[in-house]
Amino acid sequence: MDYDVTIIGSGAGGYLAALHLAKKKKKVLIIEKEKFGGECLNYGCIPSKALIELSESINYLETMPGMKINYNLDLNEWQKWKNSMVGKITGNAERACKARGANVIYGTGKIINKNTVSVNNKEYTSQFIIIDTGSVPVKINGINDVYYNREILGIEKIPKKLVIIGGGYIGVEIGTAFRKLGSEVHIVEMKERILPEVEEDLSRAVDRKLAKLGINIMTSSRVLSVKKSGNYTVKIENHDNLTADVVLMSVGRIPNTENLGIENAGIDMDGKFIKTDGHKRTNVENIYAIGDVSGGPMLAHKAFYDAYVASENICGNNTVTDYKSMPLVIYTDPEISFTGKTTEKYKKLPLLANPRSLTMNQSDGFFKIYYDEDGGIAGAGIAAPRSSEIISEIGIAIEAGLNLNDMFLTIHPHPTISEGIKDACEE
What we know:
Blueprint: E1 3-8, H1 12-23, E2 28-32, H2 38-43, H3 45-62, H4 75-99, E3 103-106, E4 110-113, E5 116-119, E6 122-131, E7 135-137, H5 149-153, E8 161-165, H6 169-180, E9 184-188, H7 200-213, E10 216-218, E11 223-229, E12 231-236, E13 242-244, E14 246-249, E15 253-255, H8 262-265, E16 269-270, E17 273-274, E18 287-289, H9 300-314, E19 328-330, E20 336-340, E21 345-350, H10 355-359, E22 366-371, E23 377-383, H11 391-400, H12 404-409, H13 419-424
Parallel strand pairs: 1-2, 1-6, 2-3, 6-18, 8-9, 8-14, 9-10
Antiparallel strand pairs: 4-5, 5-6, 7-15, 11-12, 12-13, 16-17, 19-20, 20-23, 21-22, 22-23
Helix pairs in contact: 1-4, 1-9, 3-6
């Protein structure tokens, strides 16, 4: 065999698997079709959060009482900074893999059989294969010439009027950011509410804030067509047409399995996803699939976790996935986070009761802690500034089997957002 492990895709899961396997003295080949780091680092998580951080910073000052600001944003210059920052992160990841002995080849990898992958008209053999090819945006037949996440995050001019098709987390995050940067924003969602993937009270908290920001939300609405002639014209069922200079299509993502050669190895599918067991192993014993392509929530941190599980099993350890405290974070306003499970019993504290939030002039949101019959922490939904930075506290509580009293008696610094967790747990 040429290698111990061949990894198809260098996204969040792929490069972490390579680092872990190389650390365990495995000979690793990484095959990457485009840019090292995949969708998250280059076109998704990192650049989107940089845009959101920019918009939050401006809006924070604009809405602070007594503050009057004038600013001139050169988005082209900002894009240069963002691309440089992304380049440092992806470059460091690639250099780390190579420093540990992994070989990186750029090209489209295709499975020939259970031990062979071809790239650039050359075949390589390995004892194991890990598939980490990620996901791609859903496209709708007949709707062309629109922006997707890659294009909108590379834009060099703030659009005057932005129409977003899809009210899921990507659409709402991007829409909020551009509204705070000065765009007129319209969000069109087919379902009855935005953010249908989260608990309704979390979605409602964001919906209220979007209304305050002046974003037009059209739920239970279907886009019939998008025409471009200079500007865009968006035809919506039972509504007046919308015009815009930019239209973002954000109606979900699907696993990227096209032209991968899955059928050559006889790999079973679960709908559009690659079917895996709790070890992240496919039905072909030596082939694993991780991240978006293997189902479950399409999250970079899930891919990181999957990578560790698959790598440990390849190294001979019996490691099984456990997603019970997998966090879901949406970088909206307020920032919402959820982990664990919902129960009939819960404690809820309004953000208004959190002094640190009030110092930030933030009052929309809440802390909601779910617990079981014995008071054990079961999960939480938090709508608060920087909730992404504190939701792991609930994850640790779930994993450690802590109860409400344990959380309340844990001394939290004052004043902090995290105090909301402690105060919500008070008996």
